[in-house]
Amino acid sequence: MKQTLRRLRNLKVISNTSPLIYLSKIGQLELLRDMFETVSVPAAVVDEILRGKDLPDGFASAMEVEDAVDLGWIVVEEPETEEHDLAERYSRDPGIHQGESEVLAMGHRFNLLLLDDSGARIFAKALGFDMVGTIGIILQAYDVELISFIEFKRLLEDLEYYDFWLHPHLKRRIMAEAELIRLTRNTEAC
């Protein structure tokens, strides 16, 4: 096992709703298990996802996340009293939803936060937390050789198909990072 993958598996990770839903939509939710072994989520995140059972485009993701919780690799955690109070304060920000506020309030217990929403990411950065979003997860999965370069490119396209907004500049930067990983691998193989 590569050293990087071993390091990832030692991280304590907490996720917001969006990375779980988008990874599920593109058939890659289990990348989280393969990379981190377990992923924690606040109860508010699970509640939000499970409400998707009533929506035509959310049913499959809700069922997949529910299965992962039942299997134990997605772990539901409740905020402690002071974290609950902090989450309540964070949720007063118009750009922060309940699940995000709980992830942010509980973030001090974790090494890595999984967040996509720009408002929550700005908040997390201000609090000094390390974070990565859905795109970063896919790029990291490519870097540790859980997926191929072709799969990486297809997954980016799949995300866009499911209305994951990806700024063209960011997409070019991510593709450049993936190309650099590929070139480095090819150089090391020679």
Describe the fold and architecture:
- There is one protein chain.
- The strands form two sheets. Strands 1-4-5 form a three-stranded parallel beta sheet. The protein has a two-stranded parallel sheet with strand order 2-3.
- Strand 4, helix 8 and strand 5 form a beta-alpha-beta unit.
- The protein is built from eleven helices and five strands.
- The chain is mainly alpha-helical and 190 residues long.
- The longest helix has 22 residues.
- It has one domain: 5'-nuclease (Rossmann fold), CATH 3.40.50.1010.
Q: Could you name the key traits of this structure?
A:
globular; mainly alpha; single chain; two-stranded parallel ribbon; Rossmann fold; 190 residues
Specify the structural class: mainly alpha
Strand content: 5-15%
Sequence of strands across the biggest β-sheet: 1-4-5
Q: How does the overall form come out from the CA principal axes? A: globular
Q: Could you say how many structural domains there are in total?
A: 1
Count the helices. How many? 11
Q: Which sheet architecture does the biggest sheet show? A: 3 strands, parallel
Q: What is the H/E string?
A: HEHHEHHEHHEHEHHH
Q: Mean pLDDT, nearest integer?
A: 91
Radius of gyration: 17 Å
What is the helical fraction, as a range of percent?
A: 55-70%
> Low-confidence spans: pLDDT under 50, at least 5 residues?
none
